[in-house]
Amino acid sequence: MRAIIQRVTKASVTVGEEEISSIGRGLCVLLGVSVEDTQKDADYIIRKILNLRLFEDESGRAWTKSVMDQDLEVLCVSQFTLQCVLKGNKPDFHMAMPAELALPFYDSILENMRSSYKPERIKDGKFGAAMQVHIQNDGPVTIELTSPTGPSDPRQLSKQEKQQQRKEKTRSKGPSESGRGKGAVRSRQDPNASSGADGDVSSEREP
């Protein structure tokens, strides 16, 4: 999941000629959901949006207060184009979650954000609509976030686990034992070759 978080003095969303949502000082968040996103990704993004210290305190000290600390508003706008992959100069959006799945997932993000903060402080645009987003960036301050998604393919997970196990077994042998064994084999094969034991151990440690 990707989010573009902007500190704003005001922001609003219009569809056609109708203004459907607006906030004063706070955060405007553009949110792009990918096909691989899970609740773990949503929880990470929600936590960061609400707790990032992008505001000053009462004495004017910068980067000390979050939107919740200052009782400010958040305007969220769904933006699948954040999941763009370029093919030459043509944007491709196959990494974006399909709309029929993204809508309930996005709605759940908003609900969780409201339950974690104050419902009346969380505003949003209109999912799937052609929106005009008016942002008055304060600073400017813009933060890009990407949730730490792990591999979703079980085969990929299994492969990583096996690689880690091989590394741990190699370390448990100790560099001297492994190096001596390899050096002896190389000496028998080519008496003129250098042992290179350290290099061999290194390559064995990092398959």
From TrEMBL:
Any Gene Ontology CC annotation: cytoplasm
Major localization listed first in the record, in broad terms: cytoplasm
Subcellular location: Cytoplasm
Gene transcribed to yield this protein: dtd1
Protein name, entry field: D-aminoacyl-tRNA deacylase
Keyword tRNA-binding on entry: yes
Family according to the record: Belongs to the DTD family.
Short name of any one Pfam family annotated for the protein: Tyr_Deacylase
This protein's record includes keyword Hydrolase: yes
Reactions the enzyme catalyzes: glycyl-tRNA(Ala) + H2O = tRNA(Ala) + glycine + H(+); a D-aminoacyl-tRNA + H2O = a tRNA + a D-alpha-amino acid + H(+)
Bias (Basic and acidic residues) ranges: 156-167
Disordered: annotated segments: 141-207
EC annotation from Swiss-Prot or TrEMBL: 3.1.1.96
Organism: Cyclopterus lumpus
Any one GO molecular-function label of the UniProt entry: D-tyrosyl-tRNA(Tyr) deacylase activity
